[in-house]
Design goal:
151 residues; alpha+beta; Bifunctional nuclease domain; 32% helix; globular
Length: 151
């Protein structure tokens, strides 16, 4: 993986016809990752720290990782191929035997949900960030009209 990354955050969530548009970015640029409606709702719940009656799948993943003393270091949105984003979940395990870092291929929606649940940093590869279309103006218009946004 290219080590040259740009820090980003989830800037907004907007229901769309075929799911949810997750606006991610920073002060320089914002871009959109389309996710299933259910995943958009879950990410929103984690961002708002909404209490849940039962653990969701991403809560289960968090609990399993904690049980094995594994922490989520960060997530990185790495590439875009044929309109599909790819991401990596960067995990660390440290114990009496030493420190191990593992990168796992994962859907960006799962990475965003896990990062939101655990309040972990989100990055995008610099080369991808240069290529994506800036959607900042659209997000600003949505915010002006009272759309649902994160933070």
């Amino acid at each position: 993986m290219n080590r040259d990354v740009v820090p980003i955050a989830i800037r907004g969530i907007l229901p769309a016809n075929s799911g949810c548009a997750i606006f991610v970015g920073n002060e320089e640029k914002v871009f959109v990752i389309q996710v299933e409606h259910n995943m958009g709702a879950i990410i929103g719940m984690f961002l708002r720290d909404t209490p849940k009656e039962r653990p969701l799948t991403h809560d289960l993943i968090t609990n399993i990782l904690q049980g094995f003393h594994i922490t989520v270091e960060r997530v990185v949105i790495t590439e875009l191929k044929s309109s599909t984003y790819f991401a990596r979940l960067i995990l660390q395990q440290q114990n009496e035997l030493g420190r191990k870092i593992v990168e796992i291929d994962a859907r960006p929606s799962d990475c965003l949900a896990i990062a939101s649940a655990q309040k972990r940093p989100i990055y995008v590869s610099a080369s991808l960030f240069e290529r994506v279309e800036d959607m900042s103006e659209i997000l600003d218009r949505i915010n002006e009209n009272g759309g649902e946004t994160a933070e």
